[in-house]
Amino acid sequence: MRTIQLSALGLCVLVLLSGWLMLSGLEPEAPASAAGGVGLFFLGVLFPLLCISACLSVPSTVALLLPGRRVRYGMDSILWRGVLGLNVVLSLVFLAVALAAVAGWLYRLWAL
Asked: Which end of the chain is more exposed for a tag (fewer CB within 10 A), N or C?
């Protein structure tokens, strides 16, 4: 369970850092092909990694909300509670984005 929690957090940090590095090199006068390449990188690499991070983070965080399971998996120290706290926030963000996407999709479906 520790490995899952650290992997999810590490993937999220990797995606955020990679996205920032890709966008920081883009300037307003950059050619359209460079912007297209960055967009393709986001859709082809970063978005799937973020989805994998969400698939790892949300179920393991929900499983570790019970104190008995935290003790059983050795997640009861201050350090691991901090990692769990970060993953709780990360899971809430993932769930909020997923709910907003579903709500937007249903709204567009209903509006047609």
From this structure: C
